[in-house]
C-alpha cells in the first residue's frame, strides 16, 4: 500500500500541495487510490501499524531506524502523512458514516505512531495542524446526541414511509430554510446500530491508549496549544462511559475510556509536560472539569430535569480524580482548588437539583483544604451569600446545609479569633441560614427557613442542648465589617412568627416547618403565642399551607399528648376546618380526627392509663364537652362523612357504650350523640337501650307525674311577664317539647299546644288592646312590659298560627301607625278586605317609644311569616320604613324581617332588594355590616340573584370608611360568593366602569332602574372635583 500511495509521479504534486497548504482546504485523495486502500476495510491500516510498531521506542524487536528504509525504497514520509490526513479529514463531517469514522481513528493512530518513532521530529513528521486534527478525531468520531436514538430512528422510519408516496410531495408547514433541512439531515444520518457503536468505541479506546503512550515519552512543554486541546478533549471523554467505583487514574491498564482520559489529565499535569508552570496546567484541568462537576451540558444545550444518571456518574468520577490530585500535589493545588470552589458558586445552574449536587461537591472538596484556607473560603462565602443576585444567596444556603453534614473542624494550626468563628457550625446556622430568614426576596426567605427546618429534622445539630445553645445565640463581629449577625432566641422566634404570616405561600410553609420542629423537640418553652401561630395557619388562604398546618399541629400534639395547650390548639385548629370548601383539606381533617379520636377507642375493660393514645382521645373528647364545647357541632359534619365510609361499626358503638357508666360518661354520650345523628343506617337499638336504662325511670316519672303542674307553673311564670326577655323563647320552646313528649300524634300535640298557649295569646292581645284602644292607654304604658308582651305574642304566633286572628294583625300595626290612622286600623269589621297594598306612610307618626316600635316590627315579621296576605299588605311599608326611619334599632329590625321574608316569599320580596341594598350605605356601621351579612347569606343560598345594581352596591362597600367592613366585604366577595359564581367579576367588570363613572348614555350598560334616593346614596364620583375618587356620599 505504501507503493500504491507513491507509485505515480503525479501524486507527489498532490502531497506537496497538502503540505504547502498546511493541511487546510486540501483536495481529497483520488477515489481510485482510496478504493485500493479501503477495499478490505481497516485491514490495511492494521497491517501498516503492525509493520511500523517495531520501530517505535517501545518496540524491542529491532533497533533499526525506519527512516533510511523509507528513503531506500523511494517512499515519502510526507506522502504517508498526507494520505493519513485525507482519512482524518473525511471524518470531521458530522454526516460521516461508520466506515469513515473507523478509517479516521486508525489513520490518527498511525500518525501518532509515526510521531512516536525516534527521528520523527528531524524528519518533520510533526505538524501542528495535522497533530491537532488527529486529536480532534477523539471527539469528532464519536456520534453526538446519543441520548436520543429512538427519536432519530422514528424520523428515519417516517422518511421511509414518505418515499413510498413519491407522487405526493411532502407538505412543509415551516419556513423552508436551509438550516432546518440541514439539521434534519444530520439527525437522520446520526443513527448508529449497537454493533457500529461498539466498533467505533473499540477503535477510539485503542487510539486514546496509543496517544497516552506517546505522551508518556513525548513532552509538550513547548507546545501549550496541544496541552490545552488535549485537556478539553480528555475532559469530554470522561463523560463518555461510566467508571468503576474504585478506579485510580495511575496507569494505562484501564478498561474504560473515561479512566484513560483521567490518566491523560494526570499525565499532562506531570513534570514531563509542565515542569516550569505546573499550576497553569492544573488550573486548566480544574477549569475544564468545572463543567463536569456542576453538570453543565455541552455546547449550547440547556439543563435538563431530571439530571441524567450519566452526568451524575461523571461528576462522581471527577470528584475522585480531583481528590487524588489534591492529595498528591497538596500546597500546589490549594490555590487552584480555592478558585475552583469559587467558580462552582458562580457557574452552578439555578435549579434546585443541580444546586444540591453542586453544594455536596463543594463541601466534599472544601474539606481537602487546610483549616486556614477553609476559614478564608467560608469568609468569602459569607460575602457571596449577601450578593445582590438571588441565585447566589440561595446557593449559599445549599452550601451551608451541605457543610453541616460534615463534622465540625478543629484547627490544626493557630488561627485568629475571626478565622475560628468561620470554622464553627454555629456560624453557618445562625448567620448564614437564620440570617437569611428575613431576606427581602421571598425565594431566599423560604429557602433559608426550609434549610433551618432540615437542620432540625435531619439531626444535623446532634441534640436538644445544642439547639438550645444555638437559639440563645451569640454576637459575632465579622472580621471585615462591623455587622451584627447573631440572633437571640426571642428574636429568632419572633422572626419565625412573622414569616408564618408572610405574603408568600412557600415562606409560610417553611416557617411552619421550623416552628413545628422547634416546638416538637421542646427546644423552647411552648407558649400560647407560638401555638396560635401554627393554629391560625389551619385557616390559611393557601390550600397547601392549610394541609401542612393540619399536619404540623397534629405532630405537635402527638409529641406532647398531655400538654393542655397543645390539646386546645389541635381542637381549635383542626376541628373547624372540616367546613373547608376544598375536598383534599377536608380529607386531611378526617384523617386527623380518625387517627386521634376514633382509632384509639377500645372497650372499657381494655382501657389502660398507660396507653397514651387512648388517654389523649378521651382528653380531647372531655374538652369538647367542657371548655371547647362550641367546637363539638363541627364533629357532626365530620362524622357524617366518616359514616359514609363505614367507620362506625357495631363493635365501635358497643365499646363507646361501655364507657357510659365511668367518669368518661359525658364524653361518651357526646360521641354517641354525634355518631347517631350522622349515621342514618346505624342500628340505634343498643344506644337507645343504654339511654333508656339510664334515664327512662326519671323521664317517665317526670312526664306522667309532674308535667301538668310543671307546664302550669311555666305558663303562669310567662303570664306574669316579669321574666327576662332572653328567657321567653326557651320557655315557650320547653312547652312545645313537653307537648311533643306527651303525644306522638301531630294533631293531638298541636291541640295540646294550642290549649297551653291560647291563654298566653289572649293575655297579650288584651294588654296590647288596652294600650292601643283606650283613650289614655299610652299614659299607663310600661315600656319593658309591653316589649315582653310583643315578644311573647310573636313566639306563640309561630307555634299556633291558627289561634291568631286579624285583630292581632291590626293591633300590631297600630303600635306602628300614626294617631290619625288609629280609628280605621282598629276596626276589624271595616277592614276585613284590606287592599293588597296600603299607603307607604301607614307606619309613620307613631307615638310609641323606639324600643317598642323596634320589637313591634319583629313581631309583625313573625306574623307575616305565617300569613302571606299580611306580608303582601306590609312589605311596601317595611321598605318605606328603611328609607325614612331615623331610629337605628328600627332600621336594623326591618332589614332582618325583610331578609327573612325573602326566604319565605322570594318572588314577593325580590323587587325590594334594592331598598335593602340601600342599607349598605347606612350611616351606622352596625347596620351596614348586618345588611352585608344578611344579603351574603341570601346570595349564597340563591334566594337573591346578582340583578340590577346589587353587584355594584356590594363593590362600593370595598371603600367603606370603616376598614373592618371593607375587609369583611372583600372576604364575602372573594371567599364566599366568588366560589358560587366564578365569573361574577368578569361579567360585571365593564359595566362597573360605566356605573362608577356615572355614564348612562350607553345602549346596554348602566340601564337598570334606580330611585333618586338610591342614586344619591350610592353615587361614587364627586362631579365637582377634577380628580374622581371612589368615595361614597355617606363617607364624606
Automatic annotation (TrEMBL):
SUPFAM superfamilies: ARM repeat. Gene3D superfamilies: Leucine-rich Repeat Variant. Coiled coil: none annotated. Keywords: Cell cycle, Cell division, DNA condensation, Membrane, Mitosis, Nucleus, Transmembrane, Transmembrane helix. It is found in: Nucleus. PANTHER family: CONDENSIN, CONDENSIN-2 COMPLEX SUBUNIT D3. This is Non-SMC condensin II complex subunit D3. It comes from Pseudonaja textilis (Eastern brown snake).
